[in-house]
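JOB MANIFEST
job_type = single_chain_structure
chain_count = 1
residues = 562
[input]
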Amino acid sequence: MNVFQIRTALLSALILCVAVVAPAQESPAFQPGSVTVVEATPVTPEILERLQAEGFTIDAREGERVRLYVSDGQLTALKSMGLTIQVLGHQPDPYPFQPGAKGLGVYHSYTTLTSELQSYAQTFPSLCRLESLGTSVQGRTLWAMRITDNPDVREEEPEVKYISTIHGDEPIGTELCLYFIDRLLNGYATDTRVRHLVDETDIYVVPLMNPDGLEIGWRYNASSKDLNRTFPNYPNQFSGTVYTATQDWTPYPTEVGLVGQWIAAHHFVLSANFHGGAALVNYPYDNNGLGSVNSPTPDDALMKALSLAYSRTNPLLWNSTTYPQGITNGAAWYAITGGMQDWNYRYTGCIDVTIELNSVKRPAASTLPGFWSTNEESMLTYLESSHWGLRGVVRDARTGAPLRAKVTIAGNTQPVFTDPATGGYYRLLLSGNYTISVEAAGHETQTLPTVTVTQGEAIRTDVALRPPSMPHSADTNGDFIIQREELMTAVALYQAGEYHWNGSGHAPGAGPHNGPPHTSDYAPQDWRIDAHEILRLIQLFNSGGYLVSVSATEDGYAPKAP
């Protein structure tokens, strides 16, 4: 029995479920049971477009060379295009995992990885929780390790995720994720940088998204699905956002549905997914309907800066002779349909980039410590960039309750969303001046004065949204008239220099700021009522009454004619 026959027998012994749906095009459909990995050249833009249209699985592109995964029928079709074909390997190609191999610097099977993650969770109970996202087609758990200083509490912190090995034949990212988990947990006690990251960030690591593919040594899941080609595709399979629509995961592969539901239930700010087979960082869009050409998002400059945050300290990526500084727009590399990073960005507002770690997908285990050394600083720096830009809490101005809200930057069509549990939002931004609008159901949209964002920690801007026709804070009886005694109460707050929230209203002097600010405190909203702000209230008093008006200047209330 030859090597390929042995591999096929192993596949059959695993009772692999391989139901597939043939592509709509007339190209030979992928046949389960075996796949050939090839390099084809010269692939012109026209041929690349044809390969994409006919449903070929493109894995990487470098100039006129393209790596593909093909069935026997597809291989014949490739040769008929006049391409030069080099066979690189066959799959399934199970890796000979060392039984019980543990520690860093070895390739882990699903079983040994699970054991390692459980050990970390038991050793560091105050810093992490090991969570199940559900089980794969063949019943293996998709694990997520949550690392933060209060792992049982949902705090107002940016949520960040690292996901690896969406393709089962790309295990190097799994090992780097394990190194990263170890670095954070073992470094927390002595490393001030790590401590700050863990204290101020809600970090999730999914080291192995495709455990079935890893176990049998091939790209796909156990239903022959490419998990990074089967996320919902815009605009055919979704057109709204997590704020406006609920995604139906029924038609999607098991692992895609599990990860998609998990992401949609959180409020991730930043993400990276780790692959192998090339050396670069690519950023959205992977597909904007234009084909394999540069397809920028509304956040293109930010995407490039975030990608550089990873590549700049990574010699392998930074010194690329093909991709300047080791980064590229995804579609400019080659367009794909159903990629995870585009869905993350369009649907949830989370910026997600794809990090290709090495041109060899499964280098020798002895090289893993070197790859960690190359990527350690990059993984930490990229995580730190989740704190760029603008942050704050959106609350109901009447009750102080956190709100589920949408935050939009003027001139940018891509919103971000608050965590309804905390009201917290994070909007990654480069340095500059921005106008922000905040909206929530049942509340008046508020446009804030220009906010200046500087490099470094995010600028905090909290927002209190008014329900429609909400009386002014000084109008204690809610009759839309400022009475003399109501005006005098506000004057007392003004004279005190500052005020606080006493649990049911506003009181003079220092104290907690955990309730809605006074309506008169609007520019700036600093828990002080300044002279110009009290004069505005006197104007409302003199008018004999007032109206709530979103278009009104200053505090949002329009005086009635006296």
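[summary]
The longest helix spans residues 368-384.
Residues 110-387 form a domain with the Aminopeptidase fold (CATH 3.40.630.10).
exit_status = 0
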